[in-house]
TrEMBL record:
Record flagged with keyword NAD: yes
Subunit organization: Homotetramer.
Residues that span the membrane, as ranges: none
Full protein name: 4-hydroxy-tetrahydrodipicolinate reductase
Organism whose genome encodes this protein: Paenibacillus rigui
Length: 267
């Protein structure tokens, strides 16, 4: 059986390096291209991540890398500013996108899904590839059936570009599938400082904390008469996302169209 050829966008970034290491460490996968706008283009991708040379030089041109490297899958952990054009390029060249970056719209996903189905390829877009984070989302959606009063607090480092996080939005979407819309709190509540109560989603609030020293955490707090329930997930290292990315790469080869959310692959 031939190995799955993988291109990595944002390969010199902190998450991209972990993806490169994961790909090089899996005998079922083959690194086809490593793309970064900022990396030294004379460096071998293996050397870049502290491993032996693998024979793949860094590239700054994604489209050229897709044409010359002929990957089956593109893994993208870049930025919200780059992900839309990167995904469009991948699909144009019949490369299956596995996207862990936020910054697209529901219309983007719908359009890409249609294009992928027409081309006979599949892809996965997921705000979070951590299996623990997916379980947190699923548990929260289950709890919301019995505890409809809730708030979400998500914590990230102060350099994160988007707020709220894609993970918190995905959590909110899953909760809303099991919980009827409910306007919480006192109907006469008034914010004396704008934004103090967080962002409003389907009647509940999402709060975004941005501070140096934090990697990625999220908790969903449920309140009821005489009790509270907290469901929390903490990420401490980017390597924790790699088992999920590995599964996504292999699942993408079996799909037709775009699947939004890694929870579809966790029973």
């Amino acid at each position: 059986m031939s190995r799955i050829r993988v291109a990595v966008a944002g390969a010199s970034g902190r998450m991209g390096r972990e993806v490169v290491k994961m790909v090089l460490g899996d005998p079922e996968l083959e690194l086809a291209a490593a793309v970064s706008r900022s990396a030294d283009l004379t460096i071998d991708a293996g050397r870049l991540v502290g491993l032996e040379a693998c024979g793949v030089q860094m590239s700054s041109d994604l489209e050229l890398a897709l044409v010359e490297g002929k990957p089956d899958v593109l893994v993208d952990f870049t930025t919200p500013h780059s992900v839309v054009s990167n995904t469009a390029l991948a699909i144009k060249h019949k490369v299956r996108p596995v996207i862990g970056t936020t910054g697209f719209t529901p219309e983007d996903i719908e359009n890409w899904d249609k294009q992928c189905k027409e081309l006979g390829i599949g892809g996965i877009i997921a705000p979070n590839f951590s299996i623990g984070a997916i379980l947190m989302m699923k548990f929260a959606a289950q709890a919301a059936k019995y505890f409809p009063h809730l708030e979400i607090i998500e914590y990230h480092g102060d350099q994160k570009l988007d707020a709220p996080s894609g993970t918190s939005i995905k959590t909110a979407e899953l909760i809303s599938e099991t919980r009827q819309e409910l306007r919480q709190g006192n109907p006469k509540e008034e914010e004396t400082i704008e934004g103090a109560r967080g962002g409003l989603y389907d009647g509940f609030r999402i709060h975004s904390v941005r501070l140096p020293g934090i990697f990625a955490q999220q908790e969903v707090i449920f309140g009821a008469f005489g009790q509270t329930l907290k469901i929390r997930h903490d990420s401490y290292d980017r390597a924790g996302y790699m088992p999920g990315v590995n599964v996504a790469i292999k699942k993408a080869m079996e799909l037709k169209g775009i699947v939004y959310g890694f929870e579809h692959f966790i029973d």
